[in-house]
Amino acid sequence: MRRKAIVVGAGVFGASIADHLAANRWKVELIEQYEPGHARQSSGGETRLIRYSHGTAEWYAMLAYRARELWHGLERDAGEQLLLRSGVVWFAHREGGWESDSAATLARLGIPARTLEASELERMFPSIETRDLAFALHEPQGGVLMARRAVRALVRRAQRRGVTVTAAPAVPDGDAVVVGGEKRRADVVVWACGPWLPGLFPGVVTASVTHQDVIYVGAPAGWATPDVPGWVDYDGAMYGTGDVEGTGFKLGPDFEGEPIDPDSLDRLPTQRSIDMTRTYLRRRFPALGAAPIVMTRTCQYTSTPDANWIVAPHPEHPSVWIVGGGSGHGFKHGPALGEHVGRLISGALEPDPILGLGRRSPGRNLRTAGVEGAGT
Ligand SMILES: Cc1cc2nc3c(=O)[nH]c(=O)nc-3n(C[C@H](O)[C@H](O)[C@H](O)COP(=O)(O)OP(=O)(O)OC[C@H]3O[C@@H](n4cnc5c(N)ncnc54)[C@H](O)[C@@H]3O)c2cc1C
């Protein structure tokens, strides 16, 4: 008999898990309180970077590289482009730092990356200041995912594979799921509820949910991605892309903002984010120093203390799984994480304590900001 799963949450994690389970003959119900890809979920932005550099962390690098293959498969199934083949460039301020660790790890894993001459960097961006950089690391197979569109494509494919989607808020009750006062049961329940997880599982899930802004500035011709690569300034706590579909040149100030409630937050940028963006633009991309803000997006990170995600069975209900704590760098991995969770719940893999619900030591080195921030 086919086993049944209930997956709560249709962000990139829940949608990927539901899609993968359905492809492997599970009967799946996906429950989402709003629309898949909605503006309040962490996965609902315009774009997200895909990069393979993760410092010394091989597992995340390999998972992201596997995800690239699976994103290409989704593009073929959906008949639309979801991953812009732009490459990603890291602006390294020093030798021997995170970018050097990443370069060594990628070389070991056979994932393409190479350092660029300043002149090559200058050809990639119409105006860039490179004098403060020790080197730049280029990942030619990195790129930009069309995030909201990709989540919706995942859910559509999951539906074609037989997943039923229920539009309602769900509440945990032991190993069951309560929807509209009715208790539902399954062989396995997965709660993939992003920033809602700490509120749904108080005392079980520890993660901070913080305000994060993305600022888009108007840029003239020549600044569009995929010609302009995705870029990350790890020590400068800033990342971005070129203009995608006329939305503007994107910058993400990558410090952790104030704690927020994902339901009630007014999604407006803070003055601090705007000021950091302006200062960075003037310094790194001088020609855009005075460019007008044409669009903003406000989202949230759900960060664990050490930036490793949570992928773990509930301590009291072994058939209930908690998946989240994306910590500002989960999107790109979505479909590969779906595959990983499929192996865990079918017993083919043992849960990794690094992704467990226990105590964690503070650390942020999986993210794109080595200073105090998070992201990508
Ligand atoms: C500004 C910003 C930039 C980022 N940049 C990148 C990047 O460049 N690259 C990258 O890889 N990652 C990036 N990330 C991180 C990435 O977006 C997240 O890690 C990822 O989207 C998390 O997905 P999720 O499915 O866990 O959560 P979500 O996308 O938030 O999905 C959770 C879903 O669960 C639903 N839900 C919650 N509670 C309930 C309930 N009780 N009943 C029913 N439904 C419920 C919610 O409505 C929501 O749709 C970024 C994040 C932000 C905020």
Q: What can you tell me about this protein's structure?
A:
It is a single chain. The chain is of the alpha+beta class. It has one domain (about 5-355): FAD/NAD(P)-binding domain, CATH 3.50.50.60. It contains eight helices and 20 strands. The strands form four sheets. The chain has an eight-stranded mixed beta sheet with strand order 6-7-5-15-16-17-14-18, sandwiched between helices. Bound molecules: flavin-adenine dinucleotide. Flavin-adenine dinucleotide binds near residues 31, 43, 192 and 375.
Fold blueprint:
Layout: E1 4-8, H1 12-23, E2 27-32, E3 47-50, H2 58-78, E4 83-84, E5 88-92, H3 98-109, E6 114-116, H4 118-124, E7 135-139, E8 143-146, H5 147-160, E9 164-167, E10 170-173, E11 176-179, E12 182-184, E13 188-191, H6 197-200, E14 208-217, E15 230-233, E16 238-241, E17 249-253, H7 271-284, E18 293-303, E19 310-313, E20 320-324, H8 334-345
Parallel strand pairs: 1-2, 1-13, 2-9, 5-15, 13-20
Antiparallel strand pairs: 3-8, 4-8, 5-7, 6-7, 10-11, 11-12, 14-17, 14-18, 15-16, 16-17, 19-20
The chain binds flavin-adenine dinucleotide.
Flavin-adenine dinucleotide (FAD) binds near residues 8, 11, 31 and 376.
